[in-house]
From TrEMBL:
This protein's UniProt keywords: FAD, Flavoprotein, Oxidoreductase
Name this protein carries in UniProt: GMC family oxidoreductase
Species of the source: Halorutilus salinus
Family: Belongs to the GMC oxidoreductase family.
NADP recorded as keyword: no
Gene Ontology terms for molecular function: flavin adenine dinucleotide binding; oxidoreductase activity, acting on CH-OH group of donors
Occurrences of domain 4Fe-4S ferredoxin-type (ranges): 197-228
Source domain of life: Archaea
UniProt cofactor(s): FAD
């Protein structure tokens, strides 16, 4: 046994790298079927009893989300570079730890649409997936049950369902009703949002009590986080080793199979052997680990005979507009979105790229922050605060980005992390086609706000769009080993026992938040591993 208790597991059947939603669900599924599973997680195991303290700190301007979840600790573990056309703030919305980025995610869980799997066939954009919506639908059903998804049947644009949501949808907010009248005027349909949070007790977790701090922390536990399934995996006998940074995967003498994961803990470096390996590190760290695992047999990086590892880095692009109305919106900060519109999603005019519109529950800038930055005090300050809070309305949305070789994750060999390994370099840009889709969404958003007689104060368009921090497509799946990294079963083309469970295997991005699809693919991956070993 190692000094810090993080020794390798003997006779492991499966080694999973990463304890976010993909790794947690894969590990739990396999452990529940009797396999000896070990999970290696680079980050720490957080004490969830501290979540109320985290909530209180999050409300203070001096604390950001990264600080609450110990990102960028100063030792270089989370270092990265960004050398693309647009700077990519990688650490702004990721968490390394047991539970991964679901520890501070928004909690929106939509299925991809049928067209997302067939963009090349339907629109000549990107590549088709080697699987269809119908192939993934049974796993969507299971993923919704595992996570506890609250949703309704009021979305006329949603793909077909074989079973209802496990929980009822949240009621629309008061500001949603203001948007509803405006949407009726401009002919835009609204509907509820599927959320991975509890409107009623579910799976041992309590009901949402409205703290309003879903990002960066849910103190009540009503919002799903992947440490739920980490704990379930451990109950089934899995071993989870935190603060275990996997530096590389090593292959056997023939180079045909992964033999061990080399990982470093606070007390030393160790090798974890297993019969099968699952890389579940997300869309950036997954390709980085494969590239770090270059060897004589795999000189360009592991599973990279296609050259596609790290290529096609894809995001969702934020689009938004907002302002004020001459009436109270009766909104405290709810913390999550209750209504959206997929009306623009499956169209072709002016662009076939998917667009999802969101009606944000936003009352205005924080009175506490406004007061701290004010030049006046007393009654004058109070009057200003009353005029700047409680009458704001805003719309957001996501626009699909097309995978391109121009956007990719590679290694920056001039910059190293705390273990001396090259850090990821994220190269990111926005294309003209995507800018066109953003402008089209802005037009609809401003039409809705205009129908509300809102005084529009800001718009996020093509020039200042930012990422949604959804990292996808960097180890994409496909039929052929000369253009993709994994097959339709998410097994690496080049290796007998390496699987990837991540949004990195997406082929196109759609415009839907990816976590439900990540979960569905993780469950599918677990089935295939079960078949193989």
């Amino acid at each position: 046994m190692t000094e810090d208790g993080r020794a390798p597991v003997e006779d492991a059947d499966v080694c999973v790298v990463g304890a976010g939603p993909a790794g947690a669900l894969t590990a739990y599924t396999l452990a529940s079927r009797g396999y000896r599973v070990v999970v290696l997680e680079a980050g720490e195991r957080f004490d969830r009893g501290d979540d109320e303290r985290r909530m209180e700190e999050s409300l203070r301007p001096a604390h950001d989300a990264g600080e609450l979840w110990n990102m960028e600790t100063g030792d270089g573990r989370d270092a990265y570079t960004s050398s693309g056309e647009r700077y990519y703030p990688l650490n702004a919305a990721r968490v390394k730890g047991v539970g991964g980025s679901t520890l501070h995610w928004q909690g929106m869980v939509m299925r991809l649409h049928e067209k997302d799997f067939e963009m090349e066939t339907r629109h000549g954009v990107g590549r088709d997936w080697p699987i269809s919506y119908d192939d993934l639908q049974p796993y969507y059903v299971c993923a919704e049950k595992e996570m506890g998804v609250a949703g309704g049947d009021d979305n006329p644009y949603a793909p077909p369902r074989s079973q209802p949501f496990p929980l009822p949808a949240f009621e629309p907010s008061y500001s949603d009703s203001l948007f509803s009248d405006a949407c009726d005027e401009v002919g835009l349909e609204m509907h509820s949002v599927p959320n991975a949070r509890n409107p009623e007790p579910y799976d041992g977790r309590g009901v949402c009590v409205g703290y309003g701090t879903c990002q960066p922390v849910c103190p009540s536990g009503a919002k799903y986080t992947a440490d739920v399934h980490v704990a379930k995996a451990e109950d089934e006998g899995a071993r989870v080793i935190d603060r275990a940074q996997v530096e590389r995967l090593e292959t056997d003498g023939e180079g045909d199979a992964v033999e061990s994961a080399v990982y470093t803990t606070p007390s030393g470096t160790y090798r974890q052997d297993a019969d099968a390996f699952v890389v579940a590190c997300g869309g950036v760290e997954t390709p980085r680990l494969l590239l770090l695992s270059r060897s004589r047999d795999h000189p360009d990086g592991l599973a990279n005979s296609s050259g596609a590892v790290g290529r096609y880095f894809t995001e969702h692009l934020f689009v938004g507009a907002g302002g004020t109305v001459d009436q109270p919106t009766r909104q405290n900060h709810i913390g999550f979105i209750t209504s959206e519109s997929h009306a623009l999603y499956d169209g072709e005019d002016p662009t076939p790229l998917g667009t999802k519109l969101e009606f944000l529950n936003y009352a205005g800038p924080s009175p506490a922050i406004e007061a701290m930055n004010a030049d006046e005090w007393g009654d004058a300050l109070l009057e200003d605060l009353r005029g700047s809070y409680g009458n704001h309305v805003s719309m957001g949305g996501l626009v699909e980005q097309v995978p391109t070789e121009k956007n990719w994750v590679t290694l920056d060999k001039t910059t190293t992390d705390n273990l001396g390994n090259p850090v990821p370099d994220v190269r990111w840009s926005v294309a003209d086609r995507e800018a066109e889709a953003i402008r089209a969404a802005n037009t609809v958003q401003n039409d809705v706000l205009g129908a509300m007689d809102a005084d529009v104060g800001w718009t996020v368009g093509p020039e200042d769009t930012g990422p949604a921090y959804h990292h996808m497509c960097t180890t994409r799946m496909g039929h052929h080993d000369d253009e993709s990294v994994v097959d339709h079963r998410t097994k690496a083309h080049d290796l007998e026992n390496l699987y990837i469970s991540s949004s990195s295997v997406f082929v196109t991005a759609g415009a839907m938040n990816p976590t439900l699809s990540i979960a569905a693919l993780a469950l599918k991956t677990a089935d295939h591993i079960d078949d193989d070993i």
